[in-house]
Amino acid sequence: MYCEKAMSNTLDGARSMVRAADTSGKLCQIGYQRRSNPRYRYTLEQLFNGKRIFGQIVNARGQWYRSLASSREIQCKPSLAMRPDILNSHGYTMASCLAWNDLVRRGFLIEKDPPRASNGRVIEARPSRPLRDYELPGDLNKPPHQPHLENFFAAVRGEATLNCDARCAFANEAPVHWVNPSALSHQPIVFANEHLDV
């Protein structure tokens, strides 16, 4: 079965889909199509799991593509920002950029030319330091949903495993169901494995 996202409008509904897939033994792919996008697969398999370039992830930023007027950058309160001495003590300095240089040299990342203003001058992140931007090798030259459908059909034929089965989708979707209660109670979301129990 191939189902569109979101799995359910409730956490319990999503859980019941995982249970149904588990007990029936049937394939259930959820339509989170980027799970099959070659660039995302490359990042997961080569950079995240293979080279382990990310270390421990302690912060993530989500983005929803909407109109330009609605997509302004959310700024962090200065009182919540980490002090530079704490960041430096954990290795978050300009020296840590050397790891990125090594990945460019070895072909895992491609460094793009720095962005330029309309007058041709390089846009700098701070005095005398241009912004750096990287891209992944390869490209997606198919409609964005096609690799996910191809993965599903290959799994039906027994040639592959699903890139986003019901259990995988549930782990991604559960935090979405925690957002509204968190916002209403003004409490942070604390991620714990027991919250993902089915």
Brief characterization of the structure:
This protein has 198 residues and is mainly α.
Strand content: 5-15%
Helix and strand sequence: EHEHHHEEEEHH
* Tally of separate domains: 2
Number of helices: 6
Sequence stretches where pLDDT stays below 50 over 5 or more residues: none
Describe the structure.
The chain has 198 residues and is mainly alpha-helical. The chain folds into 2 domains: 1-37 and 141-198, 3-Layer(aba) Sandwich (Rossmann fold); 76-139, no CATH class. It is 37% helix and 8% strand. It has a two-stranded parallel ribbon. Helix 1 (11-24) packs antiparallel against helix 6 (166-185). The relative contact order is 0.19. The mean pLDDT is 79.
Question: Which structural traits does this protein have?
Answer:
6 helices; 37% helix; mainly alpha; Rossmann fold; globular; 198 residues
Topology:
Blueprint: E1 2-3, H1 11-24, E2 29-30, H2 38-50, H3 84-89, H4 97-105, E3 110-112, E4 124-126, E5 129-130, E6 133-135, H5 146-156, H6 166-185
Parallel strand pairs: 1-2
Antiparallel strand pairs: 3-6, 4-5
